[in-house]
Amino acid sequence: MRRYVGWMLLSAALVSAQTAARLPADVDPDSYSRLPFVKRDQMSAEGQRVYDKLVGKDRAAPATGPVGTSLYSPGVAEPMNQLNQYLRNTVVGQHYFEICALLGAREYDQYYEWSAHEPGAVRAGVDQKVIDAIKFNREVDGLPEKDAVVIRFGRALLHDHKVSPALYAQVVEMFGRQGMFELSAIIGDYVMAAIMLDAVDQQLPPGRQPLLPVK
């Protein structure tokens, strides 16, 4: 038994050492970002309230990614999380939520976001051809019409910084005015998160594949 426990401890130490060796020098080996995990007991009373809401009072550390990073500013973390939770259940539905999340992640080549939302898109019924059109910046000819329109809408916002009257009218016809606005909000939400994750050089934890093409 002692040999087994010793072997397990040695294996854990080797995995930890291997992980630390592949990370950039300024990245924390636990959070996989430049920001170590926030410690609840070192936060203000208001910070602890937000921590408990987003993470849970009994959890020693938050998850990697946007929540763990944003807790350095509880005033940002709470509304940011609230907005994201709302956007997951808007009138556009989960299918188009995931397409918009991928558009935002792809614009910044955000591996952490993409690695979470490509599998999410598959679960939401998004065809792999649609995912690959975003991933590899392909044309949208031959894709389902509504999917193609959302991709064109996202690319207009992200690349051209404007939407033509014809495309705007098409999006409103398909999704309504509220849906058009919420598609825009989802894309913007994932662009905001991508910028924050890039700032802290968020790395993928073990077991998460990057899925995006290497830059």
What topology does this entry show?
Elements: H1 2-22, H2 45-54, H3 66-70, H4 74-87, H5 93-107, H6 111-123, H7 128-135, H8 145-160, H9 165-199
Walk me through the structure.
The chain has nine helices and no strands. The protein has helices at residues 2-22, 45-54, 66-70, 74-87, 93-107, 111-123, 128-135, 145-160, 165-199. The protein folds into two domains: 31-87, no CATH class; 91-199, Up-down Bundle (AhpD-like). Helix content is 64%, strand content 0%. It is mostly helical. Helix 4 (74-87) crosses helix 9 (165-199), helix 5 (93-107) packs parallel to helix 8 and helix 8 packs across helix 9.
Main sheet makeup: none
Count all strands and give the number: 0
Structural class: mainly alpha
Q: What would CATH call the architecture of the largest domain?
A: Up-down Bundle
Number of domains: 2
Strand coverage percent: under 5%
How far from one another are the termini? 47 Å
Mean pLDDT: 91
CATH superfamily of the largest domain: AhpD-like
CATH class of the largest domain: Mainly Alpha
What would you report as the Rg, rounded to the nearest angstrom? 20 Å
What is the share of helical residues?
55-70%
Looking at the structure, the CATH topology of the largest domain is AhpD-like
In N-to-C order, the SSE pattern is: HHHHHHHHH
Parts with pLDDT < 50 across at least 5 consecutive residues: 1-19
How many separate helices? 9
Spatial shape:
globular
